[in-house]
Amino acid sequence: MSSLSQDALTLHGGCDCTSIRFTISIPALVSRPVLPYPDLFGAEIWPPQIFLDHCNKCRRVSGALVQGWLTCPQDWVEWAIKSTSGEESPSATKFNTVDLICAKPGVLPVVNYASTEGVTRPFCGRCGTNLAYVFEGRKEKNPIPMVDIVLGSLDTESLEMPGVRPERQFYWNSGVEWIKRLVTEGDSSVGGEKLPRHPDGSRMQVV
Ligand SMILES: [Zn+2]
């Protein structure tokens, strides 16, 4: 089980240009719903679920070697989005996730990419930061509307909080072999002995 606090806690994040910010309000464990995926996980689990994703599509969309997600009920997430009015410091308006993925181009600085049928991946139209994944078909297995938040879009302070760590790796069999080795074995797996050691002992230069 995750070492995430069993008390209520709040995580923050958003896009690079700060046009879009979000707040994830995680209630105390006793108020978190059990997720209906016992067959998949072999046990009852509670949100948030934090995981790495090796599928090719998520890798391409993110542009990162490995995508990371934080999955939770949509009603835990509040979005604050600045308008496109061109003001120097436009105030942010609060939205829920459904509002976000229904945003019309040009009204808000949100672009919703329909990557596959029933899937919406909102990203910031100003800076390009990928923010979330919403899958309509998930309702068939889980009546609670869920959203996957791009883990890397969380603020550094939130990512460094105890327990905010990936617990599992999804789509392992779809992954690129050397990326999987890099994630599980560390940097020596990609360079081996052929690369000179950095003075700090690592084989990939740390700068
Ligand atoms: Zn942005």
Automatic annotation (TrEMBL):
InterPro entries: Mss4-like_sf (IPR011057). Residues 188-207 are annotated as: Disordered. Signal peptide: none annotated. One of its GO terms (molecular function) is metal ion binding. This is CENP-V/GFA domain-containing protein.
